[in-house]
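Quality-control log, excerpt.
Job 1 of 2 completed; input and output follow.
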Amino acid sequence: MRCSSRLLVAGLMVAGTHAAHAQIEVDTFHNPGDENDNFGEAVAQSGDVVVIGAGTGPNAEDVPVGAVYVYDVTDPGEVLRTLSPSDGRVLDLFGSAIDIEGEIVVVGAYGHSLDGLASSGAVYVYDITTGQEKKLVPEDPTAGEGFGQSVAISGNIVVVGVPNDDLSDIPTNDNEGSVYVFDLTTCNQIDKLRAPDATPGDRFGTSVAVAGGIIVVGTPGHGGSIGGAHTFDTNSLQFLNTIVSDSPQSFSAFGSTVALTETALLIGAPLASSDDETAAGVVTASDHAGATELHTFSSGAEGDEVGRSVATDSSPSRGAPSLAVIGAPGDDEAASGAGAAYVINADTGDIVTKLTAGDAQLFDLFGSAVSISGRYVVVGAPNEDTNGNNSGAAYLFLLDPPCPADLAEPFGVLDFSDVFAFLVAFGAMDPAADLAEPFGGFDFSDVFAFLTSFGGGCQ
């Protein structure tokens, strides 16, 4: 076990653009690095903070170790910090998996070689306020297993997926998979989770999520390629349920992506057929136990790969519907393979809006990674070419609130409590009060927008 602490290097500067997009506003984060960095292959948000991964991006010595860039949504033209491992090596793939909660960022580097064990993998944890770095490694590192292919954080625990892990102590390439749980304070490994029905090829740990006392683990090879997900109790780490689709399909990659809301579990199957369209992709929502399937979502278009990425808001606004963002990097609406993403009501499956890049180009793969926090959505396009071939980009969208003036209980009724809530939010420069252009600034235009909405009864 290793739990060393170091300080980060200050970040760089990068230009951004701002344009309108139907009911949203858009900013573009272009890669501050170079071509083939895959900037945008992983994205995550917490409050106003956005982190964007570039798994083959450069470190300070211009070595392609991987990099993670930290932004604030209120000033998207500036990189606040550039994260890179203090002991990084070529093709560590640092930044290919990321998560954030508050000021803590967790970064997977599954190509990292530990003590001569090639691609055994590592995970790094950063406090973006102090610059402290910690390193998490398994108690049983093994060459080629790629510890850190998926990561998640909640409170004081970090969950790490290792889908290439073998049940045998001798590497067999059976890829049953495993998940490690760490204590964030001590960096100690708490437990190593396995699927109770593990079989070769399961790839348990391909995706992970943790929220509301539940750990969910995607297992796309479960049941002889049918796919599934397994849930565990966060406190006891006891196995809870195995979840499979009500309409299983072989080789659909069901379980490639997972996400949680307070009431729903979303599972992506990006290679599933829908309406006889191959690899249209499907996202299935169920209750946490998997006993009741709530809805399924798909574009129904061949090759869209809906569900290649999926994210939910870890702290939705009071009274607001639970939203999910679903990536469809194969979508051809803007251009062949340019990609798209959908914002949906996670409880009902109803589409809120469809997102595409304003500067979409062929095979940008917009939608390869997605995240959402409050009204802000970030979508990664790792093959975007502005700064060179596959240099990558990420796009920031600001969603219109369903009713800007309905800010306090009782929701659905506009009264003095909403006025008071707006004044508090405005004084605190909370995004809930940022209702009009210029977004990111709080002035009379926001007050006027609130009064207009309030006076109109949110009609």
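Job 2 of 2 completed; input and output follow.
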Amino acid sequence: MSGCRFMYQNLIWGPEALNLSSARPGLVGLPVPRAQGSAVAYAQGLHQGPRDQVFRLEIDSLAQGAGVGQATFRWQRADSPAWEASGVPTGVAVRGLADGVEVKWVSGQGQDFFLGDSWTILAGRNFGPAALLDSDRDTVWESLGCQEEWIDIDLGRELRATALILADHNLGEAGLARLLADAEADWEQPDFALDLQINRPHLAIFMDQSFRHWRLALSDTGNPEGALKAGGLYLGGHFEPSRTFSSQYQRGWAASRSLTSTDAGKQAGSARALAQSWSLAFSGLSEDDMAGFEAMFRAIHDVDQGRLNPLWFTPFGDRPAQTIYCLPGESLAPSHIYQDRYGLNLSLQEMVRSHV
């Protein structure tokens, strides 16, 4: 039985590092006006952006008139530091902004526009690459089909990876998965190819390869949902202490539930999720092991960014199907045993899907 493994250093640096065979686009919401004019704004399209976005539109000129087709507007995405376009004519014809979002106006009764009239448009519910990297098991990448889909990863340079995890996938019994890697993204004759055993709910494998370009090829022709889905993607290294935890570990489950009680004492309720919990005792750890645990603990608790980053844990390296997404306790308190050896008690709580 091999030792336990911790995965917390994802080499995939952002959604821009991913290229997907297909992704279900996000929805474009109705414009919310803050306007004195009577013109009505309409938005449409299929949002292709890598993240949920808010678009802001503002009337910037009435020099040619205050009607639809005369006034002009400027627009920007909320995360943009400046207006991305200005002097854009309003009109009854649909006009594209960015990432598949389109807008048009229809005249109302009275003056259509006043200078400074504005609208906000939410383009959200994105099913693209950001959903694979946002640390949220409730958001998913969803393809447009279930045959010959793939996820391409460009790490920017050759880097060593020893673990791959595709979280919360919906590949069925007949599903196929293959990991490819190549120095030049040649997928016809890649330098590395490995057929993967599909575990559920997470596909997890360990290898030791160094490449810049990676591809995870997926297929499940008979998938009942007609599309492939996954809630997370990890490609990176793993930390394996020189000594694994004691055989007297504790593994339990905690239910996320709610209970109601009537005046007569009758109880009812609902259950939302079951979360695994692990209590582990390590003994005889070296100083290098403790440095590894400390680095992991600091990466999980990113004080500089104010973020909490869960990690992946495989209790036994030869049983990747048991991999879970989890958080440790709030403290890391090793005890000195003798010479340069240490003991450590570690608790881990699974991060669950809400199923809402």
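Post-run check on job 2. The radius of gyration is 26 Å.
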